Amino acid sequence: MKKAMWIISFIPLAVTAAILQFLPDSLPMHYDMEGNIDRFGNKTEQLIFPIIILAVTGFWTIMISYSEKKSGTANTEKEASNAASNAKLLCIVGISEAVIFGLMHFFILYGAYIEANTNARQSVFDIAKISCILGGILFIITGCFMSNIKKNKISGVRTVWSMYNDKTWQKSNRFGAVSLIIAGMLTILTAVFSNGNTGIVMMIAYLIISSAADIIYSKIVYEKERKTEK
Fold first, then answer.
1. In the chain, how many domains are there?
2. pLDDT in tens, 110-168
3. pTM of the entire structure?
4. Domain hosting residue 187, numbered range
5. Domain co-membership, 120 together with 192
């Protein structure tokens, strides 16, 4: 699955490099809050985002490799199974992110091409709106798999309270999965019915609220677990 993740991550860079010769030398590179083009740049700057996508994939690869290594050096069969399961889930999330980021890049690239060829002064797409919708989809996909993450130190809802034992971990991450899915749905709905700038602000707000709720819930679950043990 890591190989598939890297192949998908290389597609934006390969496609962009292949079509650069057909693009105008100067392309829109930045827009103000109203969507007006406020900076043009050399077309080679379009390679920056694909390179960032590869860097993010490198980060996921490190996390996946850590889980795979832990699976091989685990002291118990349960620990080995949990680590192997987490590695697969991280691969799925990494692939999903590569696809979402790739789509985002192609929207940006196509929009810049149209704008340059029509001498437009404003963005043909509300990139912030599109980014919010794609981001919301990524939150939902991540949330769908989040409840299956086994106890670990690098991913999931990781607080002092959620890490207490397997029960607090499972309950905290199931809640975290639901809260992330809700945040994703709200992000998409907000983006659809408002402009991109409002969508970005609200997306950040939803994530902050979701994270705060996860932390609070993990503490509640921990306290209940402690009372049960007593």
1. 2
2. 888 888 888 878 888 888 899 999 999 999 988 988 888 887 777 788 899 998 888 99
3. 0.82
4. 126-230
5. no
